Amino acid sequence: MTLKTQVGIIGSGPAGLLLSQLLHKQGIDSVILEKHSRAHVEGRIRAGILEQGTVDMLDEAGVGERLHEEGLIHDGIGIQFNGVNHRIGFKARDTGKTVTVYGQTEVTKDLMDAHAARGQDPFYEAEDVRISGIEAGTPTLKCLFQGKGLEVQCKIIVGCDGYHGVSRQSFPSDVLNTFERVYPFGWLGVLADVKPVSEELIYNNHKNGFALASQRSATRSRYYIQCELNESVEEWSDDRFWETLIHMFGEEVGPKIETGPSIEKSIAPLRSFVAEPMRYKSLFLAGDSAHVVPPTGAKGLNLAASDVHYLTEGLVDYFSTGSTSGLDLYSDRALARVWTAIRFSWWFTHLTHRFPENETHGMAYKLQIAELEYLVQSESAKASLAENYVGLPF
Ligand code: FAS
Ligand code: PHB
């Protein structure tokens, strides 16, 4: 079967779904090819924090209703070290902005429902998606769909297929420059239907490692603890997880942690990664296909949204006036914001995690504590963290 569309999109994660929905609102056709089923994509538990810019884009896409009903507005975070939790407010630091707690799973569901409502579901379980025609100026996607060949002839292709996707691999090797830092630890995450331990998130630098108290609603909590890369989820019973977490949050917070059966438990590796440029002729990258950040700064999903913001502007310009100026500027504009988030996420990860060189509480650990002491006593340092955490302007 052969289809023609204006924009061919690979991947129905937040980047692909949001791009397609915003293009639709502007009368631009797109087709999404997704290798997994809808249920598989919806079932992935990932991000939980939306910047104001991302919330605004979801409103613009017409999918913000449930987000405003169920999302939790947060005006600050806690930073805990040496057993004491210090609050860092956002509005108090003139950012005027807040963040919204609303799971990526919910964002994905809302966007998928919008696609279904307009009768334009992604092609789920599209196998072996391949990109061709980029050099010839005839960009084409090919795959196996329900056992039959499917060809999508496009004007533009956007790879929203994440870090392990096919689109970045389709760039000529002499065009792409990549930058990567892999962290020597991972995050063990647990989702449980228990009351969150605090109103706001708490980022905890404990002498044994990093821990994070987050949430999804007033009755559902999301917790993370730093773990070794070679550990497996099977080694972490619920009891061991809760015992470790309560110990790490110490006397002030630990006893208040409500425990219960985990409904999801997973280990995510941490890396900082950027691929430049984010465009080659009619092939564009958006979201994790082009960059990955350690989740410490809650930037991954929000960077996918800002890429989509810039790309949508360029595509609307191109399809409505023929001008390529927005598309020509896309990569530089997106990367400028990507690198600010890469820097912030790297900084915040280094400030809060246990690195091998400082396991014996040597110089590196003492420097972390010195910086944390300075941070919680300095208005300008708190303002800098706040403005990065709530999201810099697009
Ligand atoms: P995604 O990876 O979400 O989506 C890519 C889509 O493309 C997937 O549905 C995939 O199935 C599909 N795909 C891949 N290859 C394909 C192919 N060849 N053909 C067709 N389809 C293909 N961010 C935070 O801010 N906070 C967090 O706590 C957090 N936790 C995370 C935990 C994990 C395990 C991971 C992997 C990421 C986490 N992130 C977190 C980052 C995450 O939220 C991403 O930033 C976000 O999913 C980016 O969205 P997309 O760019 O759409 O990529
Ligand atoms: C989450 O709730 O999943 C979450 C929150 C903040 C982060 C990372 C993950 O920095």
- Main beta sheet, described? 8 strands, mixed
Small molecules held by this entry: arabino-flavin-adenine dinucleotide, P-hydroxybenzoic acid
The structure class reads: alpha+beta
Provide the β-strand percentage band.
25-35%
Silhouette? globular
Poorly predicted ranges: none
- Total number of β-strand segments? 20
> How many angstroms separate the termini?
39 Å
Mean pLDDT: 96
Structure characterization notes:
This protein has 394 residues and is of the alpha+beta class. It is built from eleven helices and 20 strands. Strands 7-6-14-15-16-13-17-20 form an eight-stranded mixed beta sheet. A five-stranded mixed beta sheet has the order 3-2-12-19-18, with helices on one face. 45% of the residues are buried. P-hydroxybenzoic acid (PHB) binds next to loops. Arabino-flavin-adenine dinucleotide binds next to helix 1 and helix 8.
Give me some keywords for this one.
394 residues, alpha+beta, eight-stranded mixed sheet, five-stranded mixed sheet, 11 helices, 20 strands, 35% helix, 29% strand, binds arabino-flavin-adenine dinucleotide, binds P-hydroxybenzoic acid
Summarize the model shown:
By secondary structure, this protein is of the alpha+beta class.
SSE topology sketch:
Layout: E1 2-4, E2 7-10, H1 14-25, E3 30-33, H2 38-43, E4 49-50, H3 52-60, H4 65-70, E5 72-74, E6 76-81, E7 84-89, E8 99-101, H5 104-117, E9 127-132, E10 140-145, E11 148-153, E12 156-159, E13 177-192, E14 202-206, E15 209-217, E16 220-227, H6 238-248, H7 250-253, E17 262-276, E18 279-280, E19 283-285, E20 291-292, H8 300-321, H9 325-352, H10 363-377, H11 379-389
Parallel strand pairs: 1-11, 2-3, 2-12, 6-14, 12-19
Antiparallel strand pairs: 4-8, 5-8, 6-7, 9-10, 10-11, 13-16, 13-17, 14-15, 15-16, 17-20, 18-19
